[in-house]
User: What shape does this take?
Amino acid sequence: MVQGLRGERQQYRAVRSGLVAGSDPLAIARALCHECDGRAVYIADLDAIAGTGDHLDVIRELRERLGAEPWVDAGVSNAEAAARLLEAGAARVIVGTETLPDLSALQEMRDSLPADHLLVSIDVGAHGVLSRCPALAGLPPLAALELLAHEGVTEVILLALLQVGTGAGPDTETLRAARAAFPHVRLVAGGGVRTPADLRALAAAGADGVLLATALHRGWITAADIRATRSGHRPLTSEP
Assistant: This one.
């Protein structure tokens, strides 16, 4: 298991956590769920995204042994792959814009899967949205969200890749604008969260959920901090 850093996968290293020794996925997920008093665990299966393998066995183990609810980005690009992920134990299939080939593939998955088992991650890099999909590639995040909302998407992760693993602070400006423009879309913020003040700022900006990892591993945010800000939204643990 590795620690994400700005989406630069060649820089990823094994997780070093103040919550648990080692980098075993099950042990880390258990520690994160305990710290957040929750069950939802975000997983980016980097081998599956790169097309070099998968970690379906880990997803199955998290579900069966830990009772976790894995939210999994495994680079799915069609309904068959998404169904396999659900069969392996994923509670939610994350369709990342980075690996989405086109909007017709998204529509196929939306038509084939229960709505509450699917959400889209808007993967934002230095030059706009990262995507294989010509209609999304390079768009500003709000323009991408407008297009996805038009396609019927009702829940997204706004993933600020340049902030992932850095503790640089979240992109509250984009979140606030997205909330104002799309009041009926569920918004999960990811990237850069570092302090309890960041959690409060994201809640005030309209987040329905927050991805957390680095701040928990390093002790910047504790279970008490999460409980104090949970009334407005439900933070999620992140396992990149």
Summary: The chain has one domain: 2-239. The chain is about 35% helix and 20% strand. Residues 1-9 have pLDDT under 50 and may be disordered.
